[in-house]
Specification:
This protein is mostly helical. The chain is 60% helix and 0% strand.
Amino acid sequence: MISPVSLTVSEVKGCQSVLASIQRHEKAWPFLVPVDPVAVGALDYFDIVKQPMDLSTISAKLSRGEYCLVQEFAADVMLMFDNCYLYNPATNDIHKLGRALESHFS
């Protein structure tokens, strides 16, 4: 069986740098850890968001070597933003934080 291709050392370092930059951003706080629906009063969160994603999960996946392509890393970051926009209406502060953080990522 052929083992899957993994990121090069340079690609991992690049992803780590991008991830650290996002995590340090002042508007990243809602995205640092998985959503706790009870704590934030979003009991229907998992009914609406089917593939949750957050920065700590992305970091763990990167550390475990789960990304084979830089595009997979970027797709998880975008999934995190897409989930934010799906659950939070455009007038919601979390939605606005997501837009600001996404513009930092892009």
